[in-house]
């Protein structure tokens, strides 16, 4: 795929952003001399004074931190929630074997600090979505670098940077591909200006009753079986079994089946456990399914398995030998050996945790061999039941773990490009900012750069009017917000409008129950975002996003106060055309090898911190979860059963099933 | 020269599974075979100048696990090194740079052996090369002195060692890969969708029989069976029908193909509950791509027509298998079948049957190629069946790199070649504005070449232009080279501003690019750059030249 095709190369007529200052010959070379000479004195001084934030200390992050330090950036803050894993060491060069399980942010800081003692590095082992990292904090940085590994965090930082009006340099890699993009509010396209691919999901009945591909069985093993036996049981409440005329009865049966499975959970660690579980899911449940004759009119019916018979056949197998060969497709008997063995290992962990008085919840992690073995074996046994091809553990790891290939070289290139874009940002030369793609398979070139895209006027994130309001969270009600901010300060007057947050609609002309509630009761805190949608048909305002800020000093008689005076509030009208933006062509995941996606972010997201940041959406109708139009979309969907068919399973990062709530 | 630099005892990884886990994310790019090639690689870095770009490249090779590296570097660590080179810290000041770098880089991956040179006054690059196990590839950084460069070129010629030159100065860099002769790549990793080869226009008897059996009563099949006919059978069936009404010819023009596609579409049943059939949709969608007569891919054509100049190379297993495949092609008018079948709607049992038909044919074809290859005198008998299988599977995508052009193309590395490329680039620049193309990066390459042997001392604009002129042995007349002088001058000014030093960020980025290409060469997977890549850090662009 050639990312440049949609955006033909622009002529390179722009002025060279070369340093303007004349070199000063220095008698002795110092640490700083090359930087000072090449960057020019003014840029070099700019770099030295810059306080920057780097979100993510993984693949790109390690390289980027090194580059920032040696380029002489004055103060670098690093935020990463993750700890170091063995599979990071092939590229995240600031980490060593002895650092495994330690904080990426802290170790990266220690490793990088000693190479340039003049740079101040501040490490935060924390989630960037934590309340401490509020808009005010974001606005204290000159530039923010995203070196992230997931869509959700990228969206969050994008939103915070837009709210704080801080330039963001976004980057990502997958295998040999990568890209870098400069995001500046009102000047260049933001992260959400192009729709992103949404998570791949499967109908619940396909996973639970009528699988036809290996991936269906893998999702079953990972998201259903492992989770029911070892995962967090309260996730069950999140199950939403969308019902229509055809599947109502089956959904009921499936609920009963899950409940029965959870009862078996209590027997974890007993000798009979493996047999109980096996017979439940590969015999009893299958027999029930098989009895549903209607279901198998056009499909091959599943074959229940006999545990004892299979165990007899598997007796002669050498467990260690089987486990060693991850590349081989295991036979049914070999899968049973792995099933039993991994079950024993997982059960042992549960018992150990319990006896230590700890919570014993195990969630899927592709690098946790016990869970991977269990999922691989369960999926393969289920495949055998349904006459589906089995897969090797190596392949299942990729499919279940949503693994994106990652190597040092690509990260090095992308991190270098990030710093080059940062120079342009520091000089305020946004017109020279580029969107750079690393496409090593394009003919005879490695890097292709395009002029930054312009903001999409219909973008639900940056195509809105953003403002802030100070609120006395102790006192303010939703009505205070309506009266003192929206109607008066923002100038909505007698317009019809709706207020919503990421959960749903809080207020609209027909939904007034919340008006007397305090904002705190509605879950609104400092740094919550509220979206105001103008519901007038004639000349409506664009959506307005209000960032709530807790008032630090008394606000006087009114508990809500807009940050601007009413005469300074200038909300633009919605653009006339309501067409959806075209997805932007970008190099994406899954162009490189057979990565099948069922994980948290639809094949784009690698848990290790280096994957593409942009993926064109396949379908626009399932846009952004935080889409400003979200609530109304949901309303529509509730009445549209046909659309529900393909949206049931969505997985969160822990691999648990969260079912979307339409 | 056998001492291994290692300051601490590294934790030894437990068993193969730990290693697999550590390298998991890259194994998905180049598989166990690529990893094995990396792990047996012995790489020499001859480091000079500011020395960062070489080290950054080496870092990106040590992390994925090359077998061994040696750093040859005559410099002692000075203050400027500390500012630009991440792998040197204050404690290194005044020590041999090679020693410090080998030690700190070695820590990156305990499974990689590292060594350094020179250790004594008597050690030279020449003595290092003599005493070391054979190097898999050698890279050197500019500026380098003439003597050392000649020593390396001599070694490369003698041992057929790939030689990689890297130059990073200020915001600019380039690297050149000099391969020992023609470099064939079998495992080019083509886009998976491009590899489908169904042979619909030349089906073999087993496939014909399969399709006939599936479709003989096509109209009386029940809806389930009809909706689960694999699209291969559907297309073969309707191609037969088409032939019957078109004088025995297949659809060949675009118009005929779209007519044929309509024929297939119209054959789908719409009176079923779904109101259509997915397998017929798949069949219609596959028409334009799969209903096409065979034509020899250009990469393989180049292989078939290659004229050997080197008798040793001619006897390599690649060329023996290539000869055998050529014989196969001459005999059958087609290539050995790759044998993979794309996913399609079908009953599992039928799909497996179809897969087996393709696999059996692929095995038969590969066996024929193997037999032919083994019959070739000399090394033919040693040909490995696995290598034949890989070749047959990838035959359509086999690629030659570093081919010396015939006819009027000047030899690679020659002055004439430089002149040819330069004239072409300058001519392109004349029309660049009209065609919306960016300006050539060739002047950057030339200017850096002009600095190839100068230290950071006293070069200036005129000197660089002079050096380029002598490199080209030609006057840079404006008739032929347009405003090259001016362009060179601009680059030279930028270089002078950087006082001919390295910027860490540019060198780190360049190191990423060079290492990526070296991995392709070491693993013989993917297609490496052929042969020079220039990076412009001011415009964030690269351009590749064949010089």
Automatic annotation (TrEMBL), chain A:
According to its UniProt entry, the protein's GO biological process terms are: protein sumoylation
What keywords is this UniProt entry annotated with? Answer: ATP-binding, Metal-binding, Nucleotide-binding, Nucleus, Transferase, Ubl conjugation pathway, Zinc
Give start-end positions of Polar residues composition bias.
Answer: 588-599
Tell me if Transferase is a UniProt keyword of this record.
yes
Region called Disordered, residue ranges = 572-641
Tell where it localizes: Nucleus
List the GO terms this entry assigns under cellular component, sorted alphabetically.
cytoplasm; SUMO activating enzyme complex
Per UniProt, residues of the Ubiquitin-activating enzyme SCCH domain are 318-397
Query: Residue limits of the THIF-type NAD/FAD binding fold domain?
Result: 39-461
Pathway the protein acts in = Protein modification; protein sumoylation
Q: Ubiquitin/SUMO-activating enzyme ubiquitin-like domain: from which residue to which, for each copy?
A: 470-553
Coarse class of the protein's main subcellular location:
nucleus
**Molecular function terms from GO:** ATP binding; metal ion binding; SUMO activating enzyme activity; transferase activity
Active site at which residues? 205
- Alphabetical list of SUPFAM superfamilies matching this protein: Activating enzymes of the ubiquitin-like proteins
Q: Which family does it belong to?
A: Belongs to the ubiquitin-activating E1 family.
This chain belongs to the protein called Ubiquitin-activating enzyme E1 3
The species this protein belongs to is: Neurospora crassa (strain ATCC 24698 / 74-OR23-1A / CBS 708.71 / DSM 1257 / FGSC 987)
From TrEMBL, chain B:
- Which keywords annotate this record? Ubl conjugation pathway
Specify the THIF-type NAD/FAD binding fold domain's residue ranges. 23-543
| Keyword flag Isomerase | no
Q: Which InterPro entries does the entry mention? A: APP-BP1, ThiF/MoeB/HesA, ThiF_NAD_FAD-bd, Ubiquitin-activating_enz
Gene Ontology BP terms: protein neddylation
* Similarity annotation: Belongs to the ubiquitin-activating E1 family. ULA1 subfamily.
Q: What does this protein do?
A: Regulatory subunit of the dimeric UBA3-ULA1 E1 enzyme.
Which one of the record's GO molecular function terms can you name? NEDD8 activating enzyme activity
Coiled-coil stretches are: none
Protein name per Swiss-Prot or TrEMBL: NEDD8-activating enzyme E1 regulatory subunit
What pathway is this protein a component of? Protein modification; protein neddylation
Q: Which GO terms describe its cellular component?
A: cytoplasm
Give the matching CDD domains: APPBP1_RUB (cd01493)
Q: Extract the signal peptide range.
A: none
